[in-house]
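My current task is to audit a protein record that another person submitted. Thanks in advance; the entry in question is below:
***
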Amino acid sequence: MSKRFNVWLLILVAVLVSRFIGMAFFPFADTTEPRYAEIARLMVDTGDWITPWFEPGVPFWGKPPLSFWAQAAAINVFGISEFSLRFPSWLATLGMVWLVWRLARQLWNVGVAQWSSLVFATMALTYISAGAVMTDAFLALGTTLTLVSFYLVMAGKGGLWRWSFFLGLVIGLLSKGPLALVLSGMPIVLWLLLSWQEAASNLRRLPWWRGSLMTAVLVCPWYILAELKTPGFLDYFIVGEHIRRFLDPGWTGDLYGSAHNQPKGMIWVFWLWASFPWGIVALVSLILAWFRGKRNGFVSRTISNPGVSFLVASALAPMLFFTLAGNTLWTYILPSLPFTALLIGRWVSECQSFWLARLRGGLVALVPALLTVFVGLAATGWQPVKTEKELVSYYQQISNAGDSPLIYLGDLPFSARFYSGGTALGVTGEGLSDLQTTNVFQRLYVAVPRTWSGEEVAGLASSARKIMENRRYQLLVIEGLSRDQQSVSGANGVRSNDI
């Protein structure tokens, strides 16, 4: 084993381990992570592995269950913690890093494979999603496995690659749905249009009939069972999430959050964020080379090289698909990044630029260093985050039998729901007034907005006093309920959101 390989491997391991360690110290911040974490927790709590539940009695139709299955399995193995729920995404990212390395080695050489895997692992979205409770890492793993397998089979490889093409589709369909077929099919179709003569005879190498049957057998039963158990799932998920969400900028059908209305074409800006810092550096270098007169034959060379044209098609497919979409997130870029990294990795490894040779080591460390510092600041309290972990923990330490559950006046944050084990409540002002007058609990613990003044707190109840606060809320305790019958209906700033 060469010294060069050892250095590369040590750097890659250091990058992946830094994210691995950070997963355990950063709390779930609202809204995405605790929302999905709570769904996985409920899966373990209820033992229901068919229907993911948004909350008891409310099915979650927004995503298929693969990521929740993986997170729930991790809870069963490691216990419930930030680390256990994030661990499956880290493993999915590890799988993509290996696929990037494998395809680069097939296309070029070990040196390019090393840089490609480093570039991919240190892109902003890759590094963040590797330690986050989201579904995107599983979708990207599925599409990457399908596309890498497809090219390797077209290049003459056989064996398990013929079947992993369909396994990737299974992973994508069970993690994000039909979108996986689109993001896998678009680059394949585009590439076949460019390389039909070379690829047409190789298409027979894939076991299309048996592979499609395997895919249907592994995927369809869950979709059928989900519809039978909670009718309406297929209409919401297939039509709403995959058609209306992207064609209607003002779509308001999201049952579990809010639509992310963005200007059309915003997905290309998201690509710059997601691929940071490598995408910006590569784009600037490409523009400079173009204006220096090095553009002659660039397009023809790209089209004539089957490997490069396949990477370009695979890298561009997500942006092309979402260009006209009205509702987009930057995480939609993740399926593009493995192939973007392969193109940039070749350029970085072979570029003769003196400045790039000096800068590339710093570029590798930039995102891991920035995020590690941020996690450290958050873990020590220097950098506040939107999480209710500390407030919930404080309530759990001081509350006694006979006290109320933790109550949020208005919206119930997802992180409060998760960290309380589903016991925290969100009530309206009227609901809190009812709790006071019925005198069910000895003490009420109520979280109200941090911006509330002393007069507003006093208007809630004469015995109300603040015992702690965080970035968004102040925790009040209301004692002596039998002597305190004040109405909260006149309290200012109350938001109605009966949970």
Q: What stands out?
A: The beta strands are 53-55, 58-59, 406-409, 425-427, 443-449, 465-469, 473-479.
